[in-house]
Amino acid sequence: NSVAGHKASLPNTNIYAASKFAVTALTETMRLEFKTEGTKIKVTSISPGAVRTEILPEAMINSGIPLLEAEDIAEAVLYVVGTPPRVQVHELTIKPVCESF
Hints:
This protein is of the alpha/beta class. The chain contains three helices and four strands.
C-alpha cells in the first residue's frame, strides 16, 4: 500500500491516491472476513512513504525530500511475518524521518 491510501495530501495524484485508498479498504475487509470465518490468517497493510526505487521520478529523487530505501520496507515485512501467531499487526505505516506528508 502507501501513505497515500490514508490521507489525500498530494495534488495531481487522484488516480494513485484512489487506488491506494481501495487497497486500504480491501485489506481491512479481508481481515474482517477472515476474523468472521474464524481463520488464523493474518492481514497486514504496510504503507510506506516515498521509497527510492527505479520507478520514482528523477526529479523527486533529486528534490532533497527524505526517502526510504527498499531495505527499510523489507525489514518491516520481516518484522511482521516474524511475529508470534497470537500477534496481528493490523497496520504499519513507515515514513522517513522529517517526511512532510
